[in-house]
Amino acid sequence: MFPYNDPYIQLELHRQHVAELILEAAGHRRFRGASTGRHRRLSRWRRAPARRPAAV
Known about the structure:
- The chain is mostly helical.
- Helices cover 50% and strands 0% of the residues.
- The longest helix has 28 residues.
- The chain starts with 6 loop residues before the first helix and ends in a 22-residue tail after the last helix.
């Protein structure tokens, strides 16, 4: 591994990393936007409604 002592190279590496993070976040947003309105549960059966304890 080479030491990156040049400030311009460090700045360029930082910009590349930020660009990668932006693309990754856009992908996540696209995925979340495409899955809206769908059920998030993966199981086939719904859970039974929670029962309230009997009042004494």
